[in-house]
Design a protein that fits this description.
- By secondary structure, the protein is α+β, with helices and mostly antiparallel strands.
- It has 33 helices and 16 strands.
- The strands form three sheets. Strands 9-10-12-11-15-16-14-13 form an eight-stranded antiparallel beta sheet, with helices on both faces.
- α3 links the parallel β2 and β3.
- α8 packs across α10.
- The longest helix has 36 residues.
- The protein is globular.
Length: 824
């Protein structure tokens, strides 16, 4: 197969431009020989993408009849070209150069298609005068425009959906590099152009950097052309990435999926362009950063310039010892290392011999409570962190074929370090973590665990924990970790997903889940603290939406239960009564005398599991709901707002499919179910507690409709929900995976379902469980990108765990339900 990235005409942009030239020649040039016609934009640069406009500038003499131009433009549209033309008199061209940055850029990059010689010569002279007077100001404005564009596009290179044209490191930045080179070239203009040909050797880039920019331009043109054919867009959405990788013939590499290889190479191209543009901007404007502030020497070749650190002798190559002092002082003084200085360190790395000493004590750098994440990010940007910790350096620009992740692996890890420090905590859980990070010991080991927790993804996400563990011994030897510290880092890498999985898939209030967590941390408080801090920061570093208030509540609830157990405190903050009579004595003080009989009847009808899991307030609510049912109500509904979610309690007399119908009733009103727990009374009353993400609207306006809808669902069944596939723009769906176990809980069968997320999925799964003779006890519902992760604790109709044959039949039924309507 021909390598798409090695074609002589990347993306077919040249051939497309030649075809346009023939059409313009026939329909515009020949009918209007008096006009000067210029190709601008991508057409003028010879980079005409499939969906790009045919940008034209028509300069006409005063009094010229323009009907031939209008007829020619109509013919071009009729032929399928998207034409964007600007028509100006000769005298207006010079004014546009000085008044309009975009117009000036388009004109300077223009290519002459036709026109009378005098008009062209006049335009050349106008351009020469403009550049003589405004060259530096114009280029500075272009750099400022680029910074604003980068901010508008997200400010980073490694975004999950990069814009190949306007994003950081995209084609606009390549064009700015080429424009900077042409503006500083003293040679005469190229034929039919206003500026000299592109010569990147005129820029402050070494040979490798220039080759990287040339290669990046080629790759971006190829991918953008393919993207515009596939999606009519310049933004590379996740749903298109797999198809483009296949179309362009990208193969697996080092056990990494083709789409991961494709995106990694693309990110490296974008980063090469971005770093080259940064270097050129700094070299062309050396006094840009605080020219009026004088650098003040600090120590060891490091100086302070304003609120940044710089090299005291910037014209000398940065030595390893100076780099070490630079980042150590950056942390101690809470200052950033300037962009120019980070660039100087990166350039100096190429001149260091492999055995150059690295005196920076990485562990000491990672020990403070605050400020570490910023310094480590500066070190990574300078390439220095990868020298000290090659296991992390190998993650640069490493893409993940998972729509749940919004960043490359290195950017995700840096984001985890930043969320670990939580600069402005507001919620209770965030304040808890801030205090914990300040008080906890061995913060350097915690951060080392963060840097290594995803290091195994260099060979793909599957099995990355095991591969990461294999890297820890080498790091431990280099950093001279003790046996205990080595074991602690291994623990963090090995278990970095465990707490999240327990919160997502287990009942955080059950004794079994608590015992599992305590066993995982070996009943060690520091291990527990570090795992909690790492887990919460890891989830937040996945994407802006990953850490919901509900998930944070579950993680913190389980962590605080474990802390209470290690400290010998009562679970849940109060000393739980041991039997119904003790509950009766305790709760009787909270209820009026007329409800004491109903309380006694309720406590006599529930089992020990119920009394071991509910709170006192919930028991009081259940007593009231049971009384409403005994008075003839078909269902009793109560809703309330919590800090982390909205809760809905429904009491009804049990029947087949009740849980499924309640799920359908909530989904029909726009509620997203986060979790469900169920309690039973011996007389057939069932109490369901839903944690939900509500639809928009004030609670007081929603709740009456909610109550009526749930009562109707209990009495009539849920309204029909269409079985719809997810939006077509999503990434390829994950495989349906069903795991059923009788080992996780002593009293329940645990059904773990992973399936492509879609509207109505939970209702369909609940209906399938009911059809399989299952009674629901607990449900945990999470969404990760395009993947639904639902866990159900069920029993059979006799209240026992499912038999093996029933488990097998249920797995087949759920697998069929989990498939997309049009899926395999």
């Amino acid at each position: 197969m021909l390598d798409s990235f090695a074609e002589p005409d990347p993306g077919g942009v040249g051939a497309r431009g030649s075809l346009a030239d023939h059409a313009v020649q026939a329909w515009l040039v020949e009918p209007a020989p008096e006009c000067l016609i210029l190709a601008t934009g991508g057409y003028g640069r010879g980079e005409l993408a499939p969906r790009s406009d045919l940008d034209l500038l028509v300069v006409y003499p005063d009094g010229q009849d323009l009907s031939a131009i209008e007829d020619g433009v109509r013919l071009l549209w009729d032929a399928g070209f998207r034409v964007s033309q600007i028509v100006r008199p000769v005298g207006a061209v010079g004014d546009a150069l000085t008044r309009d940055l975009h117009a000036a850029t388009a004109l300077l990059e223009a290519r002459r298609l036709s026109g009378p010689g005098p008009a062209w010569e006049a335009l050349l002279e106008t351009t020469r005068r403009f550049l003589a007077d405004h060259r530096e100001r114009f280029l500075a404005a272009k750099f400022e425009e680029a910074e604003e564009r980068h901010r508008a596009q997200g400010g980073a290179v490694c975004l999950v959906n990069p814009d190949l044209k306007l994003g950081r490191g995209g084609l606009r930045d390549v064009q700015l590099l080429e424009l900077a080179a042409r503006l500083h070239d003293p040679t005469p203009p190229a034929p039919a152009q206003l500026l000299p040909p592109v010569d990147l050797t005129l820029l402050d880039l070494d040979d490798a950097e220039r080759l990287a920019v040339v290669s990046a331009r080629r790759r971006l043109l190829v991918v953008r052309s393919a993207l515009q054919r596939a999606a009519k867009s310049d933004r590379l959405e996740v749903g298109v990435q797999h198809a483009l990788a296949a179309e362009l013939g990208v193969q697996e590499r080092a056990d990494r999926l083709p789409v991961e290889v494709f995106m990694e190479d693309l990110y490296r191209a974008l980063r090469a362009v971005d770093r080259a543009l940064t270097r050129v901007r700094l070299s062309l404007d050396p006094g840009r950063t605080r020219a009026f502030v004088r650098a003040r020497p600090l120590q060891d070749g490091v100086a302070v310039l304003g609120d940044e650190l710089v090299l005291e002798r910037p014209h000398e190559t940065c030595a390893p010892e100076t780099a070490a002092a630079l980042f150590r002082l950056a942390l101690e003084t809470r200052r950033r290392v300037s962009l120019r200085t980070r660039d100087a360190v990166r350039r100096a790395l190429k001149e260091w011999v492999p055995s150059a000493p690295q005196p920076l004590r990485l562990r000491a750098l990672m020990a403070p409570a605050k400020g570490v994440a910023t310094t480590l990010r500066d070190m990574h940007d300078a390439g220095y962190l990868g020298v000290l910790l090659p296991e992390f350096g190998a993650l640069e620009c490493l893409a993940q074929a998972d729509p749940y992740h919004s960043y490359t692996v290195d950017e995700h890890t840096l984001a985890v370090l930043e969320f670990l420090e939580e600069p402005h905590p507001t919620e209770r859980e965030e304040l808890l973590r801030e205090r914990l990070l300040i008080d906890v010991g061995d913060r350097d080991l915690l951060r080392l665990g963060v840097l290594l927790h995803d290091a195994g993804k260099v060979a793909g996400s599957i099995g990355h924990t095991e591969r990461g563990l294999a890297l820890v011994p080498g790091v431990a030897r280099r950093l001279e970790l003790s046996a205990r510290h080595h074991a602690h880092v291994r623990f963090l890498v090995r278990e970095h997903l465990t707490l999240s999985r327990l919160a997502e898939k287990r009942d955080v209030d059950s004794p079994e889940t608590l015992a599992t967590l305590l066993d995982v941390v070996s009943h060690d408080r520091q291990r527990l603290d570090h795992l909690y801090l790492l887990t919460c920061a890891d989830i937040r570093g996945v994407s802006p939406q990953a850490m919901t208030r509900w998930k944070d509540y579950l993680l913190t609830r389980l962590y605080e239960r474990a802390v209470a157990a290690l400290e010998g405190q009562p679970d849940g903050g109060f000393l739980r009564p041991e039997d119904p009579s003790a509950w009766q004595s305790w709760l009787a003080e909270r209820l009026p005398p007329e409800q004491h009989g109903a309380l006694a009847a309720h406590l006599a009808a529930v089992d020990d599991d119920y009394l071991g899991s509910v709170d006192p307030d919930e028991i009081e609510l259940h007593v009231e709901q049971a009384a409403a049912l005994e008075a003839g109500a078909p269902a009793a509904v109560h809703a309330s707002l919590d800090a982390h979610c909205e809760r809905i309690w429904v009491a009804a007399r049990d029947r087949p499919r009740l849980f499924a119908d309640l799920c359908g009733g909530l989904s029909a009103q726009g509620y997203q179910i986060l979790g469900v727990s169920t309690a039973y009374r011996g007389d057939g009353i069932v109490f369901d507690r839903f944690a939900v993400e509500p639809p928009p609207g004030a609670p007081q306006a929603r709740w009456p409709r909610l109550e009526e809808g749930l009562r109707r669902a209990v009495f009539e069944g849920a309204p029909a929900l269409p079985r719809r596939a997810p939006a077509a723009s999503q990434a390829p769906p994950p495989a349906v995976r069903i795991r059923i176990s009788n080992q996780i809980s002593p009293h329940h069968t645990v059904v773990d379902v992973t399936a492509p997320d879609r509207p109505g999925l939970l209702y369909d799964l609940a209906a399938a469980l009911a059809a399989g003779g299952c009674d629901m006890r607990l449900a945990k519902v999470f969404t990760k990108g395009n993947r639904a992760v639902d866990v159900f604790y069920v029993v059979d109709e006799a209240g026992n765990q499912l038999a093996p044959a029933a488990c097998e039949a249920l797995a087949a039924r759920l697998k069929e339900v989990g498939r997309l309507p049009d899926g395999p």
